[in-house]
Design a protein that fits this description.
Elements lengths: L3 E5 L11 H9 L2 E4 L2 H10 L6 E3 L5 H13 L4 E3 L13 H9 L3 E5 L4 H9 L6 E6 L4 H11 L5 E6 L4 H12 L3 E6 L7 E6 H11 L6 E5 L12 H13 L4 H12 L3 H8 L4
Parallel strand pairs: 1-4, 1-5, 2-3, 2-4, 6-7
Antiparallel strand pairs: 7-10, 8-9, 8-10
Helix pairs in contact: 3-4, 6-7, 7-8, 9-10, 10-11
Length: about 280
């Protein structure tokens, strides 16, 4: 019987964020596949977990995946971890998970910290729709093209960024997206955790005043400034809901859809539409 592949999230800074389930999973796994064995050994030592590690990183991912799959098919359980946070989120692991699932091997997530989600939750930006883009391109031209392509997306944009490129990226954000709200989340869950909020120009000016930027960085870009609240007649809202119903959508689902499109509370659309006659 094949073993199980566990995708185990580990702390992004504060070790108290390690879940009891993650500790138990790592303790019981036959093998722990990790980006940097030295980094993972520190974590294992802290929690008193025996080290049975194999390196698994972007440079050996293809060949190591086959080795791990053989171990899984032989019945061993394997826990996949990254240096910090949730594996596969801008970290290696996709090939292994895809192949394991394709071979009928159970893949079980052991959820926990992710820098992108932690930063988004405390950013103060809208969270109902967001786009995670991993790391922005290193070169300004490519970075601007990426931002331009995402400019019209009605969602909060979330990226990871290297500290030494942050000021350049903020300048590109300002050039492409103007005065949208921006949040730089730095060292999330660590001792020097910080959230800088403002426009790209304002945040950039503050960072330039300080000098060198250090630490792990998540860059978040808000949606375009909302236009002045538009007024909609009850007839317009009712017409939209009825059109969606004619297309086969259930009434309450149609009300939710119209509320989402108009950025209104669902109860306001329901009140405007009224009881179905």
């Amino acid at each position: 019987m094949a073993g199980t592949l566990y995708i185990v999230a580990t702390p992004i800074g504060n070790l108290a964020d390690m879940s009891p389930r993650a500790v138990q999973t790592l303790r019981e796994a036959a093998w722990i596949a990790c980006e940097d064995t030295r980094q993972t050994h520190k974590l294992l030592e802290h929690f008193g977990i025996p080290a049975r590690t194999l390196s698994y990183h972007e440079h050996n991912e293809a060949e190591r995946s086959e080795e791990l799959l053989r171990r899984l098919e032989d019945g061993d359980s394997v826990a996949l971890v990254s240096d910090a946070g949730t594996p596969l989120i801008s970290d290696p692991g996709y090939r292994l998970v895809k192949k394991a699932a394709g071979r009928g091997i159970a893949v079980v997530p052991v959820p926990g910290p992710t820098a992108a989600m932690a930063a988004l939750s405390a950013s103060g930006l809208e969270t109902d729709r967001f786009y995670f883009g991993g790391f922005l391109p290193r070169k300004s031209g490519e970075r601007r093209r990426t931002l331009e392509a995402l400019k019209g997306l009605d969602a909060t944009l979330v990226f990871y960024e290297a500290p030494h490129r942050l000021l350049e990226s903020l300048r590109d954000v300002e050039a492409v997206m103007g005065s949208r709200p921006v949040v730089v989340a730095r060292e999330v869950t660590k001792v020097h955790e910080e959230f800088l909020r403002g426009t790209a120009a304002q945040v950039s000016a503050e960072l330039e005043r300080r000098g060198a930027v250090r630490g792990e960085v998540t860059l978040l870009i808000g949606r375009t400034a909302e236009p002045a609240e538009a007024s909609f007649t009850e007839g317009e809202l009712r017409s939209e809901v009825e059109r969606l119903e004619r297309e086969g959508m259930a009434r309450m689902d149609a009300i939710k859809q119209v509320a989402w499109r108009r950025r209104l509370a669902k109860r306001d659309v329901y009140r405007a539409v009224g009881e179905k006659r």
